[in-house]
Queue: 2 jobs
Job 1
Amino acid sequence: MGKLMKNLWRVLKRPPVHIGLGVIVLFSFIGGIVFWGGFNTALEVTNTEEFCVSCHEMGDNVYQELQTTVHWENRTGVRATCPDCHVPHNWTDKIARKMQASKEVWGAIFGTIDTREKFLDKRLELAQHEWERFSANKSLECRNCHDYDSMDWDAMSDEAARFMKRAAEKNQSCLDCHKGIAHELPKQMNFKNPMLARLEQQAQGVGLDEGETYYTVKPVTLYVDEALTERAGVLESASEVTILEAQGDKFKLAIDEWRKAKGFGRVLYEDFGQNITSAVLEKETAQNEALFTSGEEKIDDLTGLPWVKVEAQFWTDTKAFLSSRDELWNYASETYGASCSICHTEPAPAHFDTNTWPAMFAGMVGFTNMDAQTQDLVLKYLQKHSSDYAGEH
């Protein structure tokens, strides 16, 4: 055998005399096909659900949880498997993901999470790695099935459409809001506070007097007309309104806010120069100047942008108002402390100014399980208790 190999090597390293160049090219081409086919076959084997759950770390933990969710069984019969959600479909990103995942082999060899107890202890760390990856690639895997351009906004509930439209405009990662969809959240994040539901129930019993000021306990859909046929936008949580009329289960509201005089002016803000969102209007509503009464105009020295005070009147059929924001702030404060203290000591609200808080909060909230409504309320609480308002509290 040794002599045969030596003779073969001697032939191969000599310039071709008896073997034609065409034969060499042909065999090289065939060899390339065989190699490429074998490589892709092996790649696809590792890209199946059967392979993913072949180790008990996955099969006994997250795979069991998946089987209780809508991604496993639903009315349409469309199932999402492990690689559908954790491996990009295009080839380049898929190879990069496979290279990243190679460290899982190391973990399996050395038993990093080979028991249920070890898995639960490291669950938050593992989840955060995936959330960071989804955030970096804008949830590339989710977009294989859930694409903003294909969404039917009219088929959604008002609340869902409100948040999804905003996410589409920003091209947000799905995991910014949708955690715990296919797998359980880490136990460190299972903080649940029934106070908000209680406050919403409490708002149902509040008598609304014309001419009095109230605050929204949850987002409220606004309409231009009393018949509620033309949608105007959404009034955010903890926003101030004055009740003008109460016609059965319909209410006419007056809102007195600021907006930037450049652009469409779709966002109404609570204070001049402070990006505390009170309402987000439809584009058509924001451009209809007949709906607004303009007042004081000021230039923000920091940005150079002109702001104008406006008053507008809209209708709603949602009874979700409290006479004070105190209980809303109590809920937001408790949620902020409980959610953000998981990883570190949370900054005091007055540690940042009003316009710095949105960016700071966005960097932290991805590691919590706050729903979108709670996120908005907690952010407004932080802004209203920031260094700009610290003297008022």
Job 2
Amino acid sequence: MTRNSTGHGAGQAGGQPDTDWAAPAAAAARAVHARFGHRLMGLPGTWIGAVAWPAPVQAPWSEWHYWWQAHYLDAVVDSGWRSLRHGNRAAATRDVARGKALLRGILLRNFGRFPNYYYDDMAWLALAADRLGGLARAAGSTQAALAGFASATLAGQLRSAYDTVLGGGIYWSRKRDYKNTPANGPAALHFARSGEPDHARALADWLRVELFDAGTGLKAGTGLYLDGVHPTASGPEVERTIFTYNQGPILAALLELDHPQYAGQAAELVAAVERRLATADGGLRLEPGADGSLFTGILCRYLALAAQEPRLPGESRAAAARLVTGTARALAAVPEPAILSAAVQRWTVLEAAATLPQLPTDTKIG
């Protein structure tokens, strides 16, 4: 069930250096801001992304998607970190200011509160807000008090979504009739990053038991995480759809938990992603639809972290880097999208590629 270092790429075939992905990432950032970004209702100090381009005249009731804005914010933070890697503190400070304005725009557009109906939405924004606070501190610009408030508020909402039905896990929505990977993966990552490892481990372990497709009997599994499970009177009903984005946050959470057991699971997951979700061209498959147009970008963000994780075997890191840069090559070749989700995905993938060390493909990492 759905609703979502150095700045160079890994190498191409033949051992030739790949694209310097920083420049395409910067161009994608400018395009998203120019095409989709605007002040919310013209209010100074706010920013928001229009759903489509060209955008109609914006009104308080204009269509929007909370979680698309969360990933827009995450991409703004990616841009700021790229600027810091290249020694451009002024550009990073501008991204901090834009991120704060976007977070303020989300707050106002959501009727003056950060919580909403969907716990996966809230987990995505908690992750982005926490990263914005970290970027602000690193840039030495201004305090990002609103980011800290958003992160803490949304973490409280995520804690409230947990119960022992189905053995644990958090719900997808306030309806509390479905527990899924889109909510539990990013929630686990947020708890791991924000100093609550016990909560993170509980969710990661629950996902492994309930929604990891290990196979049964003589039937081999995919080695990937399934979408979710419904508690019913007759027993659990699992939705077995495999989505790209469901693999990303749990991959990052496993790495963040810093234990050999979880590092081993992360390496297995990277291998399964390459085996099951890669295209013939070496990138990742792209999911269809409006929400789906964000899915592969989310996975690439976290594969880029895996590609630089020294606790993973060299083959796992090399595979993660190949998948990110292969996807970046595919998306760099297409025109600028006319829908916000696809435009943010393209930008996210290019930013992910820009974090990777520049190596020829015949060089193993580690």
